[in-house]
TrEMBL record:
Entry keyword set: ATP-binding, Nucleotide-binding, Transport
Taxonomic path: Bacteria, Bacillati, Actinomycetota, Actinomycetes, Kitasatosporales
Coiled-coil residue spans: none
Family: Belongs to the ABC transporter superfamily.
A GO MF term: ATP binding
Protein species of origin: Streptomyces radicis
Pfam families assigned: ABC_tran
Residues that span the membrane, as ranges: none
PANTHER family in the record: ABC TRANSPORTER, ATP-BINDING PROTEIN
Region (Disordered): 304-325
The name this protein goes by in its record: ABC transporter ATP-binding protein
Amino acid sequence: MSVIETESLTKRYPKVTALDRLTVDIGPGVTGLVGANGAGKSTLIKILLGLAPATEGTARVLGKDSATEGGAIRERVGYMPEHDCLPPDVSATEFVVHMARMSGLPRTAARERTADTLRHVGLYEERYRPMGGYSTGMKQRVKLAQALVHDPRLVLLDEPTNGLDPAGRDEMLGLIRRIHTDFGISVLVTSHLLGELERTSDHIVVVDGGRLLRSQTTASFTEATASLAIEVTDSDAHPDGTGALTAALADRGFAVTAGAGHLVHVEAADEAVYDAVRDAIADLGLGLIRMEQRRHRIAEVFQDAPDAPRAQDTPHALAGQEAAT
Ligand SMILES: Nc1ncnc2c1ncn2[C@@H]1O[C@H](COP(=O)(O)OP(=O)(O)OP(=O)(O)O)[C@@H](O)[C@H]1O
């Protein structure tokens, strides 16, 4: 069943087309929505929530039309906005209780759910202090808690790792994963960092300039291009065992590249490659130190793809490793 479905969704602002005929079908689980800054991610979220009208096309969330049933969608969906929007002079507890009450929870239930949710996101004693004194990581956790407090079926998280240091980012990504595994809530999480979503998401949607570039399972991004990493010993006959194996496999018609250290990477299109590696090593009289499957990182898949985002359109961040801005 679709959780989010868009059909030719287009949003034109006077000077820019933020979404350009975007058609995408997203099922349950954790979905990463990846795109460079300005790719249209926040615009999509606002349309899905019924907070901004589309220029053309349709969007359905949990089966409801975002153009006409925004209220019903917001009852069932949690939203974590990108920017800092927390009132500085109230505590996390007061704020999240207020948001729970706004979502229709009775007073006692709102208090109980707030305590549970703040504990879940890792806020303890601090939750009674005014939020103005919180670190970025704590603020992000409160924003996440208010998105979860009314027990939604889906949460839309806009750049939840923004401004976090690497450790904070890892913790946030772990929390996001658990939203689905512990509570069964589906998640759409946006990022301009392709690399960070591959561990967290079941499915990845990539947008560029408001258009859909890719939509597929995270596993299929990486599995289809799995390779073997092999390390061998040298021998008297072959003082450069790595070089000899590379040449022997290339002779047998395999795509071979040099990996880090003395690793040889071979594209593993099918199982025949295992036999070929075994035979090549035996023929050369080398020792096999290790042979392991190596999944490509999504960013590498993109570098090789003919329709990969062009470098000038795509801030280097899309390749995945830089600190969030
Ligand atoms: N209210 C608006 N009025 C005019 N242009 C807008 C408005 N909101 C967004 N845009 C433009 O639409 C494009 C897409 O913006 P959007 O915020 O959806 O991108 P994004 O992928 O979320 O990027 P970011 O991570 O930087 O927020 C950008 O060029 C942006 O400048």
